[in-house]
Every structure is written in C-alpha cells, then in structure tokens.
Amino acid sequence: MTLNARCFLGGTVYSRLLQERIVFLNGPVEDALSSVVVAQLLFLEAESSAPISLYINSPGGSVTAGMAIYDTMQFVHCPVHTIVVGQASSMASLILAGGEPGHRSALAHSSIMIHQPSGGAGGQASDISIQANEILRIREKMFDLYADHCKFRDEDRETARKRFAQMLDRDHYLTPEGAIGQGIIDHVLKKRPSAMASTEGEGGIKGTNAP
C-alpha cells in the first residue's frame, strides 16, 4: 500500500475494507453514493490490476447514478466481482449482473428484484411526451444490457432480450437460485469460498453459466 493510498483511506471500517479492495454499495443508488463508489473503483484501479469485490445491499434508485457505477465497472481494467448481501433491486440488480462473468454471487438469503425503469412526468404536454420517450429509451437499453450480461451459452442475444423484456414488465423477485436460473448471477455463497471449498456446501451453489 502506497503512502497516497494510506492518506486516501483514513481510518474507518470502510477504509479498512478498501485496503482489501472491497467496495460497499449500501443504500439507495443516488448521486452522492454513486460518486463515492465511482471514485473508489478508479482509485483501486490506479493502485493495482487485482480484482475488486463490490458488495451490494441496495433497493436501487436513480438510473443515471446507477449507470455511472455500471459504466465505471466496465471501464476499469481490473475485474469487478459482485456480491449481493441483503438485496439488489431495480438498478442495483443491473450493477450486480454487470460484474465479471463467473464472479457474480449472492449470499444464501439475499433477494434480487428486476423491473423496468419508472418516472414521473409533469409540465406541458410536449415535456411529458419527451420524458415518456426518454423512459422508453432507457427501458430498451436495460433490455439490451441484461441480455448482454445474462445470455446463456446456448442462447442467442435476441432470445435473451425477449426473456428479460417479459420479466421486466412488472416487479420480478428472484431468490439467489432463481437469479442463477436467469443468468443474473453465477454462484450462491453460504460461506466465504476458500481454496479447498467445493462448488456446493461450503462454497455454495454454482450456476451452469459459470466458468
């Protein structure tokens, strides 16, 4: 750990986690939290090319704030492993799915919820129409991103896209095992994996899409 790293980290428990290359996305996804997570991802990338572990416990929130985190995860050179503890709902579920393939996990009693974006519109009729069109554009982009990250090996992208378009029509709650069944995660973890852990039992359950 460099001197600059020690100065940046300070002395809190979150700073200690950051020293271990662990980032914690905890709470609603909004601009302030997003800026902290983005800064931590960029900081850790500058420190090392080793994997980053992103723990998620979030009900979701702002699409733009969430996309800032998602895009940064794809932008950095080091792989980002995602782990849901508690819940990953709405925008947080896309962040979960956007982790490094084969390294997207959920603890045994966590919950995942996916749905289409929503938003309130007000003002003149032309403004309402513009906002509605933007929500539809974001919805189509969500279908694309889920399909890109959750497509099965024997499934073409368009089939995966249709699958998620149907699921995202309403709030769709998934258990960790159900999330494996949809390609959103790769593993269910019961205990922290170790070098000697099997893919079931101590290490958890492994999905068919996982390497």
Describe what you observe in this structure:
It is a single chain. Helices cover 45% and strands 18% of the residues. Strands 1, 2, 3, 4, 5, 6, 7 and 8 form an eight-stranded mixed sheet that branches. The protein has helices spanning 3-9, 13-19, 31-47, 63-75, 91-97, 125-150, 157-167, 176-181, and strands at 22-26, 52-58, 80-89, 104-107, 111-114, 172-174, 187-189, 205-206. It has two domains: 3-115 and 171-206, 2-enoyl-CoA Hydratase, Chain A, domain 1, CATH 3.90.226.10; 120-169, no CATH class. It has eight helices and eight strands, in the order ααβαβαβαββααβαββ. With 211 residues, the chain is an alpha/beta fold.
